[in-house]
Specification:
By secondary structure, the chain is mostly helical. 78% of the residues lie in helices and 0% in strands. It holds the Pfam family MFS_1.
Protein backbone atom coordinates (compact mmCIF):
# COMPACT_ATOMS: atom_id res chain seq x y z
CA UNK A 1 0.00 0.00 0.00
CA UNK A 2 1.71 3.16 -1.12
CA UNK A 3 1.91 6.30 0.93
CA UNK A 4 -0.35 9.02 -0.26
CA UNK A 5 -0.36 12.67 0.64
CA UNK A 6 -3.01 11.84 3.23
CA UNK A 7 -0.66 9.57 5.18
CA UNK A 8 2.40 11.86 5.37
CA UNK A 9 3.07 12.98 8.96
CA UNK A 10 1.69 16.39 9.82
CA UNK A 11 4.63 18.66 10.88
CA UNK A 12 2.48 20.36 13.55
CA UNK A 13 1.04 17.13 14.98
CA UNK A 14 2.77 17.41 18.39
CA UNK A 15 1.53 20.96 18.88
CA UNK A 16 -1.93 19.74 17.87
CA UNK A 17 -1.68 16.98 20.48
CA UNK A 18 -1.24 19.60 23.24
CA UNK A 19 -4.56 21.27 22.32
CA UNK A 20 -6.39 17.96 21.81
CA UNK A 21 -5.11 16.78 25.21
CA UNK A 22 -6.24 20.05 26.83
CA UNK A 23 -9.76 19.57 25.42
CA UNK A 24 -9.86 15.94 26.58
CA UNK A 25 -8.72 17.02 30.05
CA UNK A 26 -11.56 19.56 30.20
CA UNK A 27 -14.22 16.96 29.28
CA UNK A 28 -12.87 14.37 31.75
CA UNK A 29 -12.46 16.98 34.51
CA UNK A 30 -16.05 18.04 34.06
CA UNK A 31 -17.28 14.51 34.76
CA UNK A 32 -15.94 14.57 38.36
CA UNK A 33 -15.54 18.26 39.21
CA UNK A 34 -19.32 18.77 39.33
CA UNK A 35 -19.76 15.87 41.81
CA UNK A 36 -17.74 17.79 44.43
CA UNK A 37 -19.65 21.03 43.80
CA UNK A 38 -23.11 19.40 43.74
CA UNK A 39 -24.02 19.76 47.47
CA UNK A 40 -23.24 23.52 47.44
CA UNK A 41 -25.03 24.11 44.11
CA UNK A 42 -28.06 22.17 45.36
CA UNK A 43 -28.38 24.41 48.42
CA UNK A 44 -27.85 27.67 46.49
CA UNK A 45 -30.33 26.88 43.72
CA UNK A 46 -32.94 25.20 45.92
CA UNK A 47 -32.78 21.88 44.01
CA UNK A 48 -34.73 19.12 45.79
CA UNK A 49 -33.10 15.82 46.79
CA UNK A 50 -35.33 14.05 44.28
CA UNK A 51 -34.13 16.28 41.43
CA UNK A 52 -30.44 16.68 42.28
CA UNK A 53 -29.49 13.59 40.23
CA UNK A 54 -30.52 15.52 37.07
CA UNK A 55 -27.41 17.71 37.37
CA UNK A 56 -25.45 14.53 36.55
CA UNK A 57 -28.12 12.67 34.54
CA UNK A 58 -28.93 15.51 32.08
CA UNK A 59 -25.25 15.60 31.07
CA UNK A 60 -24.88 11.81 30.88
CA UNK A 61 -28.03 11.36 28.77
CA UNK A 62 -27.09 14.03 26.21
CA UNK A 63 -23.44 12.91 26.05
CA UNK A 64 -24.11 9.17 25.89
CA UNK A 65 -27.10 9.46 23.58
CA UNK A 66 -25.52 11.76 21.00
CA UNK A 67 -21.99 10.31 20.80
CA UNK A 68 -22.51 8.20 17.67
CA UNK A 69 -24.19 11.14 15.97
CA UNK A 70 -21.27 13.35 17.05
CA UNK A 71 -18.76 10.89 15.62
CA UNK A 72 -20.58 10.77 12.29
CA UNK A 73 -20.84 14.61 12.18
CA UNK A 74 -17.04 14.72 12.70
CA UNK A 75 -16.58 12.41 9.69
CA UNK A 76 -19.02 14.48 7.61
CA UNK A 77 -18.10 18.09 8.55
CA UNK A 78 -14.42 17.48 9.15
CA UNK A 79 -12.90 16.72 12.54
CA UNK A 80 -11.19 20.08 13.02
CA UNK A 81 -14.39 22.06 12.45
CA UNK A 82 -16.43 19.72 14.69
CA UNK A 83 -13.74 19.91 17.39
CA UNK A 84 -13.70 23.74 17.41
CA UNK A 85 -17.53 24.02 17.36
CA UNK A 86 -17.75 21.45 20.18
CA UNK A 87 -15.23 23.41 22.29
CA UNK A 88 -16.94 26.78 21.83
CA UNK A 89 -20.36 25.28 22.50
CA UNK A 90 -19.06 23.54 25.63
CA UNK A 91 -17.63 26.88 26.87
CA UNK A 92 -20.97 28.67 26.27
CA UNK A 93 -22.91 25.91 28.06
CA UNK A 94 -20.44 26.05 30.98
CA UNK A 95 -20.96 29.82 31.27
CA UNK A 96 -24.72 29.21 31.38
CA UNK A 97 -24.27 26.61 34.14
CA UNK A 98 -22.06 28.90 36.21
CA UNK A 99 -24.62 31.70 35.90
CA UNK A 100 -27.61 29.43 36.68
CA UNK A 101 -30.32 31.04 38.82
CA UNK A 102 -32.56 27.98 39.22
CA UNK A 103 -32.78 24.25 38.61
CA UNK A 104 -34.25 24.49 35.07
CA UNK A 105 -31.34 26.68 33.89
CA UNK A 106 -28.85 24.31 35.55
CA UNK A 107 -30.36 21.15 34.02
CA UNK A 108 -30.57 22.80 30.58
CA UNK A 109 -26.94 23.93 30.69
CA UNK A 110 -25.82 20.42 31.69
CA UNK A 111 -27.73 18.86 28.77
CA UNK A 112 -26.10 21.41 26.41
CA UNK A 113 -22.66 20.59 27.85
CA UNK A 114 -23.35 16.90 27.16
CA UNK A 115 -24.48 17.60 23.58
CA UNK A 116 -21.37 19.65 22.74
CA UNK A 117 -19.19 17.10 24.58
CA UNK A 118 -20.62 14.46 22.24
CA UNK A 119 -19.32 16.49 19.28
CA UNK A 120 -15.98 17.23 20.91
CA UNK A 121 -14.88 13.84 22.34
CA UNK A 122 -15.03 11.66 19.17
CA UNK A 123 -13.55 14.50 17.06
CA UNK A 124 -10.55 14.72 19.45
CA UNK A 125 -9.81 10.99 19.40
CA UNK A 126 -10.30 10.65 15.64
CA UNK A 127 -7.96 13.62 15.01
CA UNK A 128 -5.25 11.69 16.85
CA UNK A 129 -6.08 8.58 14.83
CA UNK A 130 -5.64 10.33 11.46
CA UNK A 131 -2.71 12.62 12.45
CA UNK A 132 -0.39 10.07 14.10
CA UNK A 133 0.35 7.36 11.56
CA UNK A 134 3.81 6.12 12.62
CA UNK A 135 3.58 3.20 15.11
CA UNK A 136 6.09 4.59 17.65
CA UNK A 137 4.76 8.15 17.49
CA UNK A 138 1.21 6.81 17.75
CA UNK A 139 2.21 4.92 20.90
CA UNK A 140 3.57 8.10 22.51
CA UNK A 141 0.57 10.22 21.48
CA UNK A 142 -1.96 7.68 22.74
CA UNK A 143 0.10 7.23 25.91
CA UNK A 144 -0.37 10.92 26.72
CA UNK A 145 -4.04 10.83 25.68
CA UNK A 146 -4.68 7.63 27.69
CA UNK A 147 -3.06 9.10 30.82
CA UNK A 148 -5.31 12.16 30.57
CA UNK A 149 -8.42 10.10 29.82
CA UNK A 150 -7.73 7.93 32.86
CA UNK A 151 -6.21 10.38 35.35
CA UNK A 152 -8.22 13.50 34.49
CA UNK A 153 -11.16 12.40 36.63
CA UNK A 154 -9.02 12.34 39.76
CA UNK A 155 -7.53 15.76 38.87
CA UNK A 156 -11.15 16.95 38.72
CA UNK A 157 -11.65 15.87 42.32
CA UNK A 158 -8.67 18.00 43.45
CA UNK A 159 -9.63 21.03 41.36
CA UNK A 160 -13.30 20.70 42.34
CA UNK A 161 -12.30 20.58 46.00
CA UNK A 162 -10.17 23.71 45.74
CA UNK A 163 -12.74 25.72 43.78
CA UNK A 164 -15.67 24.70 46.01
CA UNK A 165 -13.80 25.20 49.29
CA UNK A 166 -11.96 28.44 48.52
CA UNK A 167 -14.04 30.17 45.83
CA UNK A 168 -17.58 29.10 44.91
CA UNK A 169 -19.27 26.13 43.21
CA UNK A 170 -19.94 28.34 40.15
CA UNK A 171 -16.20 28.28 39.37
CA UNK A 172 -16.38 24.53 38.71
CA UNK A 173 -18.30 25.60 35.56
CA UNK A 174 -16.45 28.82 34.73
CA UNK A 175 -13.07 27.01 34.84
CA UNK A 176 -14.01 25.24 31.57
CA UNK A 177 -14.13 28.53 29.63
CA UNK A 178 -10.37 29.29 29.48
CA UNK A 179 -9.62 25.60 28.75
CA UNK A 180 -12.07 25.62 25.83
CA UNK A 181 -10.99 28.97 24.35
CA UNK A 182 -7.26 28.11 24.45
CA UNK A 183 -7.88 24.65 22.95
CA UNK A 184 -10.21 26.03 20.23
CA UNK A 185 -7.78 28.82 19.24
CA UNK A 186 -4.86 26.38 19.19
CA UNK A 187 -6.81 23.84 17.14
CA UNK A 188 -7.93 26.48 14.63
CA UNK A 189 -4.38 27.66 13.92
CA UNK A 190 -2.41 24.41 14.35
CA UNK A 191 -4.50 21.39 13.29
CA UNK A 192 -4.37 20.38 9.65
CA UNK A 193 -6.53 17.40 8.73
CA UNK A 194 -5.20 14.87 6.22
CA UNK A 195 -6.73 15.29 2.76
CA UNK A 196 -9.54 12.97 1.72
CA UNK A 197 -10.38 11.81 5.24
CA UNK A 198 -14.01 12.98 5.28
CA UNK A 199 -17.03 10.78 4.75
CA UNK A 200 -19.48 12.78 2.66
CA UNK A 201 -22.16 10.07 2.45
CA UNK A 202 -25.66 11.34 3.29
CA UNK A 203 -26.60 11.24 6.98
CA UNK A 204 -28.44 8.11 8.12
CA UNK A 205 -31.41 9.81 9.87
CA UNK A 206 -33.20 6.58 11.03
CA UNK A 207 -29.88 5.42 12.50
CA UNK A 208 -29.38 8.75 14.32
CA UNK A 209 -32.89 8.62 15.83
CA UNK A 210 -32.76 4.94 16.84
CA UNK A 211 -29.22 5.07 18.31
CA UNK A 212 -29.86 8.31 20.21
CA UNK A 213 -33.17 7.14 21.70
CA UNK A 214 -31.76 3.66 22.44
CA UNK A 215 -28.66 4.97 24.24
CA UNK A 216 -30.69 7.58 26.16
CA UNK A 217 -33.13 4.85 27.29
CA UNK A 218 -30.22 2.59 28.35
CA UNK A 219 -28.34 5.28 30.30
CA UNK A 220 -31.55 6.55 31.91
CA UNK A 221 -32.58 2.99 32.83
CA UNK A 222 -29.37 2.49 34.83
CA UNK A 223 -29.56 5.96 36.37
CA UNK A 224 -33.19 5.38 37.33
CA UNK A 225 -32.37 1.93 38.81
CA UNK A 226 -29.92 3.57 41.20
CA UNK A 227 -32.64 5.79 42.69
CA UNK A 228 -35.87 3.79 42.24
CA UNK A 229 -34.66 0.17 42.21
CA UNK A 230 -34.39 -2.50 39.51
CA UNK A 231 -38.01 -3.64 39.75
CA UNK A 232 -39.45 -0.13 39.27
CA UNK A 233 -41.85 -0.19 36.29
CA UNK A 234 -40.23 2.79 34.55
CA UNK A 235 -36.74 1.26 35.03
CA UNK A 236 -37.88 -2.03 33.45
CA UNK A 237 -39.69 -0.12 30.69
CA UNK A 238 -36.52 1.83 29.87
CA UNK A 239 -34.45 -1.36 29.57
CA UNK A 240 -37.07 -2.99 27.31
CA UNK A 241 -37.27 0.16 25.16
CA UNK A 242 -33.44 0.34 24.95
CA UNK A 243 -33.26 -3.32 23.84
CA UNK A 244 -35.94 -2.86 21.15
CA UNK A 245 -34.50 0.44 19.86
CA UNK A 246 -30.88 -0.79 19.74
CA UNK A 247 -31.93 -4.02 18.00
CA UNK A 248 -33.87 -1.96 15.45
CA UNK A 249 -30.74 0.21 15.06
CA UNK A 250 -28.54 -2.82 14.28
CA UNK A 251 -31.08 -4.15 11.73
CA UNK A 252 -31.32 -0.69 10.11
CA UNK A 253 -27.51 -0.35 9.94
CA UNK A 254 -27.22 -3.71 8.19
CA UNK A 255 -29.59 -2.55 5.44
CA UNK A 256 -28.99 1.13 4.68
CA UNK A 257 -26.48 2.20 2.03
CA UNK A 258 -24.60 4.75 4.20
CA UNK A 259 -24.99 3.59 7.83
CA UNK A 260 -24.35 5.85 10.84
CA UNK A 261 -22.31 3.01 12.38
CA UNK A 262 -20.93 0.61 9.73
CA UNK A 263 -21.28 -2.78 11.43
CA UNK A 264 -17.76 -3.78 10.30
CA UNK A 265 -16.47 -1.24 12.89
CA UNK A 266 -18.09 -3.38 15.62
CA UNK A 267 -17.74 -6.89 14.22
CA UNK A 268 -13.98 -6.77 13.64
CA UNK A 269 -12.73 -9.04 16.41
CA UNK A 270 -10.03 -6.80 17.90
CA UNK A 271 -12.11 -3.63 17.90
CA UNK A 272 -15.08 -5.47 19.44
CA UNK A 273 -12.77 -6.84 22.14
CA UNK A 274 -11.54 -3.31 22.94
CA UNK A 275 -15.04 -1.81 23.22
CA UNK A 276 -16.25 -4.64 25.45
CA UNK A 277 -13.24 -4.90 27.79
CA UNK A 278 -12.90 -1.09 28.08
CA UNK A 279 -16.60 -0.70 28.91
CA UNK A 280 -16.33 -3.33 31.67
CA UNK A 281 -13.17 -1.75 33.13
CA UNK A 282 -14.92 1.64 33.27
CA UNK A 283 -17.87 0.04 35.12
CA UNK A 284 -15.46 -1.10 37.83
CA UNK A 285 -13.55 2.17 37.98
CA UNK A 286 -16.47 4.62 38.08
CA UNK A 287 -18.02 2.74 40.99
CA UNK A 288 -14.75 2.88 42.91
CA UNK A 289 -14.36 6.68 42.41
CA UNK A 290 -17.77 7.14 43.99
CA UNK A 291 -17.15 4.80 46.96
CA UNK A 292 -13.69 6.16 47.77
CA UNK A 293 -14.96 9.76 47.66
CA UNK A 294 -17.73 8.92 50.15
CA UNK A 295 -15.43 6.77 52.30
CA UNK A 296 -12.79 9.50 52.61
CA UNK A 297 -15.25 12.37 53.20
CA UNK A 298 -17.98 10.70 55.28
CA UNK A 299 -16.09 7.96 57.17
CA UNK A 300 -12.63 9.53 57.43
CA UNK A 301 -13.86 13.15 57.59
CA UNK A 302 -11.54 14.45 54.84
CA UNK A 303 -12.21 17.93 53.39
CA UNK A 304 -12.96 18.15 49.62
CA UNK A 305 -9.37 19.32 48.95
CA UNK A 306 -7.82 16.57 51.07
CA UNK A 307 -10.04 14.00 49.34
CA UNK A 308 -8.81 15.21 45.96
CA UNK A 309 -5.16 14.89 47.05
CA UNK A 310 -5.87 11.41 48.42
CA UNK A 311 -6.52 10.32 44.80
CA UNK A 312 -3.06 11.46 43.62
CA UNK A 313 -1.48 7.95 43.81
CA UNK A 314 -4.06 6.74 41.28
CA UNK A 315 -3.21 9.61 38.91
CA UNK A 316 0.53 8.93 39.33
CA UNK A 317 -0.07 5.23 38.62
CA UNK A 318 -2.12 5.99 35.51
CA UNK A 319 0.39 8.43 34.06
CA UNK A 320 3.24 5.96 34.73
CA UNK A 321 1.26 3.03 33.30
CA UNK A 322 0.28 4.96 30.17
CA UNK A 323 3.48 6.78 29.29
CA UNK A 324 6.23 4.58 30.78
CA UNK A 325 4.83 1.05 30.44
CA UNK A 326 2.08 1.12 27.78
CA UNK A 327 3.74 3.53 25.37
CA UNK A 328 7.18 1.90 25.67
CA UNK A 329 5.97 -1.68 25.25
CA UNK A 330 3.19 -1.09 22.74
CA UNK A 331 5.44 -1.34 19.70
CA UNK A 332 7.21 -4.41 21.16
CA UNK A 333 4.41 -6.70 22.37
CA UNK A 334 0.87 -7.51 21.14
CA UNK A 335 -1.87 -5.33 22.70
CA UNK A 336 -3.51 -8.29 24.50
CA UNK A 337 -0.29 -8.79 26.53
CA UNK A 338 -0.64 -5.23 27.84
CA UNK A 339 -4.42 -5.11 28.26
CA UNK A 340 -4.95 -8.55 29.86
CA UNK A 341 -2.23 -8.23 32.55
CA UNK A 342 -3.07 -4.49 32.95
CA UNK A 343 -6.66 -5.24 33.93
CA UNK A 344 -5.43 -8.04 36.26
CA UNK A 345 -3.01 -5.68 38.06
CA UNK A 346 -5.92 -3.23 38.45
CA UNK A 347 -8.01 -6.11 39.88
CA UNK A 348 -5.27 -6.79 42.48
CA UNK A 349 -5.42 -3.09 43.44
CA UNK A 350 -9.21 -3.39 43.80
CA UNK A 351 -8.71 -6.58 45.85
CA UNK A 352 -6.67 -4.60 48.39
CA UNK A 353 -9.53 -2.10 48.67
CA UNK A 354 -12.03 -4.84 49.59
CA UNK A 355 -10.27 -4.76 53.00
CA UNK A 356 -11.72 -1.30 53.77
CA UNK A 357 -12.91 -0.85 57.33
CA UNK A 358 -13.64 2.19 59.50
CA UNK A 359 -10.10 2.19 60.88
CA UNK A 360 -8.28 1.26 57.63
CA UNK A 361 -4.87 2.93 57.25
CA UNK A 362 -4.57 5.12 54.14
CA UNK A 363 -0.83 4.35 53.78
CA UNK A 364 -1.15 0.59 54.28
CA UNK A 365 -4.22 -0.20 52.13
CA UNK A 366 -5.67 2.71 50.13
CA UNK A 367 -2.38 4.09 48.77
CA UNK A 368 -0.96 0.78 47.41
CA UNK A 369 -4.43 -0.21 46.16
CA UNK A 370 -4.72 3.03 44.18
CA UNK A 371 -1.18 2.75 42.81
CA UNK A 372 -1.82 -0.77 41.48
CA UNK A 373 -5.21 0.23 40.09
CA UNK A 374 -3.70 3.26 38.33
CA UNK A 375 -0.72 1.34 36.94
CA UNK A 376 -2.92 -1.46 35.62
CA UNK A 377 -5.55 0.81 34.09
CA UNK A 378 -2.98 3.16 32.55
CA UNK A 379 -1.12 0.24 30.96
CA UNK A 380 -4.36 -1.24 29.55
CA UNK A 381 -6.03 2.02 28.46
CA UNK A 382 -3.15 3.06 26.28
CA UNK A 383 -3.21 0.21 23.72
CA UNK A 384 -7.03 0.10 23.99
CA UNK A 385 -7.40 3.74 22.89
CA UNK A 386 -4.98 3.22 20.03
CA UNK A 387 -6.33 -0.15 18.86
CA UNK A 388 -9.93 1.13 18.83
CA UNK A 389 -9.07 3.40 15.87
CA UNK A 390 -6.13 1.41 14.51
CA UNK A 391 -6.17 0.46 10.83
CA UNK A 392 -9.62 2.00 10.35
CA UNK A 393 -10.41 3.73 7.07
CA UNK A 394 -9.95 7.49 7.87
CA UNK A 395 -13.54 8.20 6.83
CA UNK A 396 -14.77 5.92 9.65
CA UNK A 397 -12.38 7.28 12.29
CA UNK A 398 -14.97 9.58 13.85
CA UNK A 399 -17.58 6.90 14.43
CA UNK A 400 -14.96 4.37 15.65
CA UNK A 401 -13.76 7.00 18.15
CA UNK A 402 -17.36 7.69 19.18
CA UNK A 403 -17.74 3.99 20.04
CA UNK A 404 -14.78 4.24 22.47
CA UNK A 405 -16.49 7.17 24.19
CA UNK A 406 -19.87 5.40 24.09
CA UNK A 407 -18.44 2.31 25.81
CA UNK A 408 -16.94 4.62 28.47
CA UNK A 409 -20.12 6.67 28.97
CA UNK A 410 -22.44 3.67 29.10
CA UNK A 411 -19.89 1.84 31.28
CA UNK A 412 -19.79 4.82 33.65
CA UNK A 413 -23.59 4.98 33.92
CA UNK A 414 -23.83 1.20 34.48
CA UNK A 415 -20.95 1.20 36.97
CA UNK A 416 -22.37 4.00 39.12
CA UNK A 417 -25.89 2.48 39.19
CA UNK A 418 -25.00 -1.21 39.43
CA UNK A 419 -22.28 -0.97 42.09
CA UNK A 420 -24.22 1.65 44.07
CA UNK A 421 -27.26 -0.64 44.15
CA UNK A 422 -25.10 -3.57 45.31
CA UNK A 423 -23.52 -1.38 48.00
CA UNK A 424 -26.92 -0.10 49.18
CA UNK A 425 -28.29 -3.67 49.42
CA UNK A 426 -25.26 -4.86 51.41
CA UNK A 427 -25.51 -1.82 53.72
CA UNK A 428 -29.18 -2.57 54.48
CA UNK A 429 -28.39 -6.24 55.11
CA UNK A 430 -25.55 -5.33 57.49
CA UNK A 431 -27.81 -3.04 59.54
CA UNK A 432 -30.50 -5.75 59.73
CA UNK A 433 -27.94 -8.34 60.94
CA UNK A 434 -26.22 -6.10 63.52
CA UNK A 435 -28.97 -3.76 64.75
CA UNK A 436 -29.88 -5.88 67.79
CA UNK A 437 -26.43 -5.69 69.42
CA UNK A 438 -25.55 -2.12 68.38
CA UNK A 439 -24.96 0.50 71.10
CA UNK A 440 -24.02 3.44 68.85
CA UNK A 441 -26.43 3.95 65.88
CA UNK A 442 -24.06 6.37 64.13
CA UNK A 443 -21.15 3.92 64.34
CA UNK A 444 -23.41 1.12 63.06
CA UNK A 445 -24.40 3.30 60.08
CA UNK A 446 -20.73 3.96 59.20
CA UNK A 447 -19.78 0.28 59.60
CA UNK A 448 -22.72 -0.71 57.39
CA UNK A 449 -21.72 1.86 54.74
CA UNK A 450 -18.12 0.58 54.62
CA UNK A 451 -19.34 -3.03 54.51
CA UNK A 452 -21.53 -2.07 51.54
CA UNK A 453 -18.57 -0.46 49.76
CA UNK A 454 -16.41 -3.55 50.31
CA UNK A 455 -19.15 -5.86 48.91
CA UNK A 456 -19.51 -3.73 45.77
CA UNK A 457 -15.72 -3.55 45.30
CA UNK A 458 -15.63 -7.40 45.28
CA UNK A 459 -17.95 -7.21 42.26
CA UNK A 460 -15.62 -4.66 40.67
CA UNK A 461 -12.71 -7.13 41.13
CA UNK A 462 -14.72 -9.80 39.27
CA UNK A 463 -15.65 -7.38 36.48
CA UNK A 464 -11.96 -6.49 35.94
CA UNK A 465 -11.01 -10.18 35.79
CA UNK A 466 -13.70 -10.69 33.09
CA UNK A 467 -12.37 -7.60 31.20
CA UNK A 468 -8.89 -9.15 31.29
CA UNK A 469 -10.19 -12.50 30.00
CA UNK A 470 -12.07 -10.79 27.13
CA UNK A 471 -8.97 -8.76 26.16
CA UNK A 472 -6.75 -11.88 26.07
CA UNK A 473 -9.34 -14.01 24.24
CA UNK A 474 -10.76 -11.63 21.63
CA UNK A 475 -7.81 -9.35 20.84
CA UNK A 476 -5.46 -11.35 18.63
CA UNK A 477 -3.66 -8.75 16.51
CA UNK A 478 0.14 -8.66 16.60
CA UNK A 479 2.25 -5.78 17.82
CA UNK A 480 2.12 -2.55 15.75
CA UNK A 481 5.00 -2.39 13.33
CA UNK A 482 5.30 -6.18 13.00
CA UNK A 483 5.55 -7.72 9.59
CA UNK A 484 7.13 -6.50 6.43
CA UNK A 485 4.33 -5.25 4.22
CA UNK A 486 2.28 -3.29 6.69
CA UNK A 487 0.08 -0.39 5.76
CA UNK A 488 1.19 3.20 5.77
CA UNK A 489 -0.08 3.79 9.27
CA UNK A 490 2.66 1.60 10.68
CA UNK A 491 0.31 -1.07 12.00
CA UNK A 492 1.94 -3.85 10.03
CA UNK A 493 -0.93 -6.16 10.82
CA UNK A 494 -0.48 -9.49 9.15
CA UNK A 495 -4.05 -10.70 9.67
CA UNK A 496 -5.57 -9.11 6.58
CA UNK A 497 -8.11 -7.17 8.64
CA UNK A 498 -6.85 -3.92 7.17
CA UNK A 499 -8.22 -4.73 3.73
CA UNK A 500 -11.52 -5.87 5.17
CA UNK A 501 -12.01 -2.19 6.10
CA UNK A 502 -10.43 -0.49 3.14
CA UNK A 503 -12.18 -2.14 0.19
CA UNK A 504 -15.91 -1.84 1.12
CA UNK A 505 -15.64 1.78 2.30
CA UNK A 506 -13.93 2.98 -0.88
CA UNK A 507 -16.57 1.11 -2.90
CA UNK A 508 -19.47 3.14 -1.38
Amino acid sequence: MSKTAGTLPDPSRWKALAFIALAQLMVVLDATIVNIALPSAQTDLGISDGNKQWVITAYALAFGGLLLFGGRIADLWGRKRTFVVGLLGFAAASALGGAATGEAMMFGSRALQGAFGALLAPAALSLLAVMFTDAKERAKAFGIYGAIAGGGGAVGLILGGFLTEYLNWRWTFFVNIPFAIIAAAGAYFVIREPAGSRNRSPLDIPGVVLSTLGLVALVYGFTRAEAAGWSDSLTVGMFVAAGVLLLAFVITESRVKSPLLPLRVLTERNRGGVYLSLGLAIIAMFGLFLFLTYYLQVVKGYSPVKTGFAFLPMIAGMITGSTQIGARLMTRVPPRLLMGPGFLVAAVGMLLLTQLDIGTSYAAVILPGQLLLGLGMGTAFMPAMSLATHGIEPRDAGVASAMVNTSQQVGGAIGTALLNTIAAGATTAYIADHAAGATDPKLLQLQAMVSGFASAIWWAVGILVVASAIAVTLINTGRPGAGTAGPADGSGRADGVEDEYKIPVVAH
